[in-house]
Amino acid sequence: MKMTGMLAAWLGLLALVVSGAQSAAAEEAAVVLVAGGTGGTGRHIVGQLLEQGHTVRVLSRSEESARNAFGETVQVVVGDVRQPETLAAAVDGVRYVVSAIGSSGRVDPDNSPEAVDYRGVKALVEAAAGSGGVEHFVLVSSMGITQPTHPLNRFANNILLWKGLGENALRFSGLNYTIVRPGGLIDEPGGQAGIRVGQGDTMEQGRIPRADVARVCVAALGRADAHRKTLEIISGSAGEAVNWESFFAPLEPDPAGGFGG
Questions:
Q1: Which residue in 50, 94, 108, 132 has its CB near the most CB atoms, within 10 A?
Q2: Taking Cα atoms as reference points, which of 156, 230, 158, 153 lies closest to residue 197?
């Protein structure tokens, strides 16, 4: 009887080890889709995901463009958020989605804020929700969303208003989400300063490196304390470290059924 009990214990331990290994392998195999991955902020997101060992899939209108940027280090799916029928293959088998797409804001019917920042985001959100496998969707938006008279709306075809509608498409999708609203984007090295966080779109304007925006997006992935939250970010004090373990937890979730601030 004693030997039988020992054998049962060893078998139980072996089952736990195998289960843990399978769980770790499943996590390692999780695919992250990055839309807008060949853009300024998107390249940083892809690069940081790869550094952390994620399997990355890039949604791009041009395979050549994606391969020129990342070689064979990523999966590439050719598609266009303005063509919803091309998105099912992009989200198939994906656990996380990060969207860094954005229009130029110029007078171009094919690349307008309405077509990209609203309808394109909405199409990607609907594809992700319809896939049944996406656990978290991170959207890069912009500060100033709630300010109709913001200069960007006057000079860029109401781009912030359309981005706001894109945000709301995500909020009402049923997906776990995080909406990241950076201040003015700059092409400087990340990790050189702290990151100031606000909510409600009331924080004063500021700037932030694209690389730091990417850090916030990547850090949010898979974190329950980042779910259903909208936050504004700008650079903080030089040399200040960011504690990612406590970065999202103090933030208030968006109100249930609300439009966010």
A1: 94
A2: 230
Query: What would the two tokens of residue 213 be?
Result: 């925006």
What's the pLDDT tens digit per position in 153-163?
A: 888 889 999 99
In this predicted structure, what is the pLDDT of residue 16? 41
Domains recognised in the chain with CATH numbers: 28-246 (3.40.50.720)
Helix (H) or strand (E) holding 14: helix 2-29
Residue type, 110: D
Q: What is the pLDDT of residues 171-180, one digit of tens each?
A: 999 999 999 9
Alpha-helical regions (H) of 30-158: 40-51, 63-70, 88-91, 113, 119-131, 151-155
Please name which of 140, 129, 138 lies closest in space to residue 101, comparing C-alpha atoms: 140
* Its pTM surpasses 0.85: yes
